[in-house]
Structures are given as structure tokens and as C-alpha cells.
Structure of Endonuclease/exonuclease/phosphatase:
Amino acid sequence: MIRFWAVLEDCGLCDLGFLGLCLTWNNGREAIANLKKRLARVVANGNWIDLFPIYRVTNLEFWSSNHRVVLLELMGTETYGKNEGKGRGFRFETWWINDAECIDIVSGAWANNSFDGSINSFLMGLDGCTRDLKK
């Protein structure tokens, strides 16, 4: 596995995590001969995450196979990759750091986010912060 993670890092890829049970493969044998592993993963690079910042990876149930279906859902994609008719996407302005209202908005947005350390949770928090700053 060390080589696998090294290749992902060399290629600029990261594991997007998952919801559901961790094990994605089952050899179908009984009792002590039964093996279960996490073989399936969804990986992406930074450019993909920039294009699709809100996503969910879910390991579904076994369906007539010894592999779980891995579902990748892109949420809110109808607005991503478009400029929403405003000429350009959202950009944080450095000078906002000195604005007390901006600090309150950012602090409030992150306080309302249930950040669990995952990339998806971080991106959802970032999206909420962006949305609040646009108001």
C-alpha cells in the first residue's frame, strides 16, 4: 500500500473518502475463509476538485456481485463551471481581512459547519463561507 499512496501523491491525486461501509469487496466464502477488503476508491486531482467542489462518495450494498457499487454524486454542479452571469466567479479580496464584518461572516460560516476533517466537509464549509460572503 505504501507504493500505492506514493503513486497517488506523485500524480497529485487524493482519495476523496466515502460514506457507508469501508469494505468494498468480499470473496463470498464462509466463516474464517471470508475475506473483505477496501479495493475501490475514488481519487481526484486539485483541478477536478476545483471544478466539482461539493461531492459525495458512497459505498452502496453488494448487488449480485462480490464488489460494492461506489456512487459518486456531484452536488450543485449546475452552478459550478459557470460564471452565474456575473462575468467571473467568486474571488476573495485580501483587503477584506481588515474588515470586521468580513471576519464575523467567515467566523460564523465556519462555526455553522460540522467539519469532520474530511475533504468533502472542508469543501462544504468553504462553499457555505463563499455563499455568505456573496450576500
